[in-house]
What we know:
α1 runs antiparallel to α2. The protein starts with 6 loop residues before the first helix and ends with a helix. The longest helix has about 30 residues. By secondary structure, the chain is an all-alpha fold. It contains 2 helices and no strands.
Amino acid sequence: MSINDLPVLSALRTKMQWHQERQRVLSENVSNSDTPKFRPRDLVEPKLDRSGAVTGSMGPLALTRTSGSHMTPSGAASGFDQNKNAGFEPRPAGNAVNLEEEMMKAASNQMDYAAATSLYSKSLHLLKTAIGKA
């Protein structure tokens, strides 16, 4: 078993690959901001298990009642705005790309990628130090 086969490093590699692919998708959204009838796309974040393998699909999380004194969800809409695109309408040509939102997603994606890359390199350095090869 090599160092690269460890579950934590495998999970970080999967996460970095997902961020790379997401960056490509977000770049396509920006580059097609003037294409008629273009709809922006995004990727669903992978869910990883302890071995670093992708498991299941991401779905909405159900509310969990952790104490008997908490109120139960009544099914009514919350006071928070769940639809971030509510104030944005597609242009007359049918293009639904919101450049500000796409740029914010791209910036967030870059920061998350940088964090995953830093964790990966630090994990490798830590392991090499532990086995005396650093």
